[in-house]
Amino acid sequence: MGSRHPFERRTEKEKRRIVHEVNQGIIGIRAACRKYGLNRNTLRSWLVVFSLPTTDTLATPEPSTTMPDPQLDQTLTRQVKALTKALAQAELKISSLQTVIEVAEEDLKIKIRKKSGTKRSKE
C-alpha cells in the first residue's frame, strides 16, 4: 500500500499517466488511489480534466494509403459467413419454439405466454 505524502505535487506527465491507466482499465479508481496515495476526489478531478478531448486528439486521422491485408479480408469474410449462419439458426430456433408454444396453447389449452398487463400476485 502506498504511503500518503501530504501536499505532494505531481507533474502533469504523472497525472496523465495515472489517468491513462484508469481510462484503459489497467487499474481501477480505488486501486489507483491506494497505489499512488491519492484521494478519490482528486483522481476523479484529474479524470475530468485529462480525459477531455484536446485539439490534438480531435484532429482527423490521415487516410490510410495501404490496401487492406488480403488475409484479414478473408478472415473477416469467414467471420461474416459464420455469424450469418448462426443468425439463421437462431431465427429458425425462435420460429420453431414459437410454433411449439402455439400448438401447445391450442391443443392442450395451456396458457404459456405471459400477458403484458398482468401483475404479480401478493402472496
What does this protein structure show overall?
With about 120 residues, the chain is an all-alpha fold. It has two domains: about 10-55; about 70-115, no CATH class. The protein is built from five helices and no strands. The longest helix is centred in the last third of the chain and has 38 residues, at about 70-105. It starts with 11 loop residues before the first helix and ends in a 16-residue tail after the last helix.
Mean pLDDT: 81
Helix content: 55-70%
Write down how many β-strands occur, each being a DSSP E stretch of 2 or more residues: 0
Helix count, DSSP H or I runs of 4 or more residues: 5
Structural class: mainly alpha
Characterize the largest beta sheet: strand count, sense, and whether it forms a barrel. Answer: none
Q: What portion of residues belong to β-strands?
A: under 5%
Work out the radius of gyration: 28 Å
Q: What is the 3D form?
A: elongated
Low-confidence stretches: none
Please provide the ordered H/E string of secondary-structure elements.
Answer: HHHHH
Overall tally of domains? 2
From the N-terminal CA to the C-terminal CA, the straight-line distance is 51 Å
Layout: helices, strands, pairs:
Elements: H1 12-23, H2 29-36, H3 40-51, H4 55-58, H5 70-107
Helix pairs in contact: 1-3
Short characterization:
The chain has 123 residues and is mainly alpha-helical.
Structural descriptors:
123 residues; mainly alpha; 2 domains; 5 helices; 60% helix
